[in-house]
Amino acid sequence: MLYSAIVRPLLVIGRAGSGKTTVALGLAHLLGRVHRQVSLLRLGTDQRARHDARLFQRLGLSTQGEPLSVLPPSLPPVAVVEGEAEALPPGWQEAGARIVAVARYPHVQDMLSLLGQLGEALLGMVVTCVPERRQKQLMERLAGAPVLGMVQEDRVLAFPTLGQLQEAVEAQALWSMGHEEMALSKVVISSIAKDPGQDYFARLRPDAVIVRSDKPDQQLAALNVGVRCLLITGDTPILPYVLARAEEEGTSILATHLGTVEVVKKLDALIASAPLAGREKAERAAHLVASAIDAERVLASLREP
Question: Quick one: which of 109, 130, 148, 224 could link to 105 by a disulfide (CB 3.0–4.6 Å)?
């Protein structure tokens, strides 16, 4: 095989849900500081791989919106490749790839056992979703391990986008066009009290409010403080005045027949498990990773012959 990379390609591996897409985006952003054009490729055959490949294309980091089943014989000059920890792609050694292994806190032991099999190709391990209060303890636990960096847990990355939430709760969307990738990092449930709740919403400043369809006073209270999304539950028709106010304010409405409890359960299942989506979350991921790892170490390792 003939590989055309002008620097060693980076192969980012990890298990599903480990945060390897977050790390791959961060490394591509880091390389972009010193190289004019960086390509971000996705290996895999499942739905998550297809989702990631399309995201990379929308971000302008890939020319194709489908994942690769094998490592191509001719790589772009500067390439970051995301793959699975379970099976390294054939040809990675011939390509001179350096490997970054990704593990999600607290599940680092399985990845540590794999590191020894990678030899000199291993650049290091990145641990994601590390609570700030656990970082020092984890550093002591991993003393002597080739840790490249630790990425703290982050609300923007953990919570779903508007589009992901809409799909999960089977909602009809109003005035959401162009906002599907909006990150909803702070979602609150409206009060069950009779009080309209405007002070409550003003204090919390949520991105989205889950509110029953028979509570128009609380819907309006949320609109009055500039909430970005109303997730209205139940079968009571939404008042025309509420719809008009939402349209005037540019607030997206997700209307679902599901009850509030079921919606909250579906939201809870999405948190920290939904694949990374949207430019806002991608930029946040790139910033977090780039600030958490040793950039000079990465760049120097890729310049080695």
Answer: 130
DSSP character string of 1-14: -----SSPPEEEEE
The pTM score is 0.88
Confidence of residue 194 (pLDDT cuts 50, 70, 90): low
Amino acid identity, position 152 = Q
Cβ atoms of 235 and 8 closer than 8 Å: no
Coil, strand, or helix at residue 242?
helix
Nearest Cα to 208, choosing from 236, 235, 233? 233
Q: Alpha helices, DSSP H only, in the chain?
A: 20-31, 47-58, 109-115, 135-141, 155-158, 162-168, 198-204, 216-224, 240-249, 260-270, 279-292, 295-303
Burial 14-53 (b: 16+ CB within 10 A, else e): bbebbbbbbbbbbbbbbbbeeeeebbbbbbbeeebbbbbb
**Nearest 10 degrees: Cα torsion 32, 105, 147, 285:** 10
Q: Tell me if 45 sits within 8 A of 87, measured CB to CB.
A: no
- Nearest CA to 20 among 298, 293, 289, 300? 289
Domains of the chain as residue ranges with CATH: 10-154+275-303 (3.40.50.300), 160-270 (3.40.1390.20)
Angular region, 205: left φ>0, alpha ψ -120 to 50, beta rest: left
Query: Is the pLDDT assigned to residue 1 strictly greater than 60?
Result: no
Sign of CA dihedral 138, 158, 14, 71: negative
Q: What is the pLDDT of residues 119-159, one digit of tens each?
A: 889 999 999 999 999 999 999 999 989 999 999 999 999 99
